[in-house]
Amino acid sequence: MRCFLISVLFVSIFGCKVTTVENFTKSEVKAEYKVQNPYFSNQEIDYVYKADITVYGNEFSGILILKKITPQKHRMVFTSQFGSTFFDIEFEKETHKINSIIEQLDRKIILNTLIRDFSLLVKETAIVAERYYNDQYNVLENQKDKRSNYYFYNQLDQKLDRIVHASKRKEKFIIIFNDISGDQIAKNIQIDHKNIKLTIELNLLKK
Q1: Which 3 state secondary structure label does DSSP give 124?
Q2: Which PROSITE patterns does the UniProt entry name for this protein (predicted)?
Q3: Rg for the chain (alpha carbons), in Å?
């Protein structure tokens, strides 16, 4: 009886899908399935957003400029409206380079979280590990370092609506893309964390 109860507990904890896709149907992963994030992929565009970052009660507001500077590299600069730089970070493949960052954001938990958020935001492609679907979404799962990124593509137009970053048992944060233009630009982007007090909102100023 004891072994049976342990087995049931093990299955209940590790055998269930994360809540992100628990009501979705799982299907075969085919070769043509590809994770693609088009929103910051054009080297000809300077993506300029009004940015508001709230972290543990501290608010930072200003202008965020995001630029794809080579086929594999993005640069992101966040400044105040008076021109002071909050941070200047480059992302290339799975690495990053911090050119500058203010002391208030240069704390391990905050910095690591920002790097994870923005790395995922600009990551253009990824390998598909699993696929799920329902009437509204086609969901492609990418797995990395014991965590997963779930990419939600709207069934109506196949536009990427959101990305959910989750552990095996719960969601960690979600990136939501709103008001998508015909040339694949998200006019509003929200990043909401579930377990720490960090929110990011970006509103397009120009392209």
Answers
A1: coil
A2: PROKAR_LIPOPROTEIN (PS51257)
A3: 19
Say whether domain 18-206 belongs to CATH 3.30.160: no
Distance CA 180, CA 182 (A): 7
Q: What residue ranges do the domains of the chain occupy? A: 18-206
Predicted model pTM = 0.89
Could you read off the pLDDT of 33-91 as tens digits, one per residue?
889 999 999 999 999 999 999 998 899 999 999 999 999 999 999 999 888 999 999 99
Contact partners, residue 87, CB within 8 Å, separation at least 6: 76, 77, 78, 98, 100, 101, 102, 105, 114
If one counts every other C-beta atom within 10 angstroms of the C-beta of residue 68, the result is 20
Joined together, the tokens standing for residue 110 give 């905050």
Is residue 168 within 8 A of residue 21, CB to CB? The reply is no
DSSP E strand stretches across 106-170: 125-126, 130-133, 137-144, 147-154, 160-166
Angle CA 162–99–44, to nearest 5: 55
pLDDT tens digits, 82-136: 889 999 999 998 999 999 999 999 999 999 999 999 999 999 999 999 999 999 9
